[in-house]
Amino acid sequence: SPQGVNKVKIKVVDYERLSETIGDSCTSADVAFCCLGTTQSEAGGRAGFTKVDLDYTKAAAQECKKAGSISHFALVTAAGVNRSCPRFISNYIWTKARAEEEVLSLDFPKGASIWHPGFLNRGEELASKRFTEKVAHWCGLSGLRVQDLAKSMRFYA
Fold first, then answer.
1. pLDDT by residue (tens digit) across 8-62?
2. N or C: where does the chain have the smaller number of CB atoms within 10 Å of the terminal CB?
3. Model's pTM, two decimal places?
4. What DSSP assignment string belongs to 100-111?
C-alpha cells in the first residue's frame, strides 16, 4: 500500500458547530484536506453558497491553524479561479478566490496547496444531479476522477 495510506482518517463534522465537533482531529494530524463545495442552486442561492464555500472553508482552516499541529492545508477550489475577478462577473469564482486568500493568509508552517481541478468525475450516480455534468456525460466527457485527485493531493502533502 502507498506510504501513509493507513494514516488517513476521515472525521465527519458539523460545520455549524465546527469548534465543538472537530474534536481532537486537528491535534492528532499534521495535514488537513478541505474538499468542501456546493453550487448556488444546491445551497439555495448566493448566501448559502457563500456560507459553504467561503465561511465553512475559512472556519475549517482556522480550526486547523488554531490546533497548532497542522503544518499543511490542502484546499480544492475550481479551475479558472482568478483572485482579481470581480464578484459581479462571477460570484462563483469570486467566492472560491476569497476562500483561497483566507487559507493562504493563515500561513501554515509547510504552506497550503490550492488545487484547481477542471471537471470532476464524481461517478455516474452523482453526475445526473448537476446540469453541466449531465451535458458532459452525454458528450462522452469523463473528467478527472475524484479518486485520482485525492491520490495526487495525498502524495503532494
1. 777 778 888 888 877 667 777 889 999 988 888 889 999 999 999 999 999 999 9
2. N
3. 0.83
4. HHHHHHT--TT-
Whole-angstrom Cα distance, residue 107 to residue 84? 21
Longest Cα pair distance anywhere in the chain, in angstroms? 47
Smallest Cα–Cα separation from 54: which of 41, 71, 40, 67? 40
Amino acid type, 97: A
| Residue closest to 31 by CA, chosen among 8, 15, 54 | 8
Distance CA 83, CA 99 (A): 10
Q: Quick check: helix, strand or coil at residue 81?
A: coil
The answer to whether 119 and 136 have CB atoms below 8 angstroms apart is yes
Q: Count Cβ neighbours within 10 Å for each residue of 126-151 and write b for 16 or more, e otherwise.
A: ebeeeeebeebbeeeeebeebeebee
CA–CA gap between residue 125 and residue 133 (Å, rounded): 11
Which residues face 31 on adjacent strands?
72
pLDDT for 90-109, tens place per residue?
888 999 999 999 999 999 99
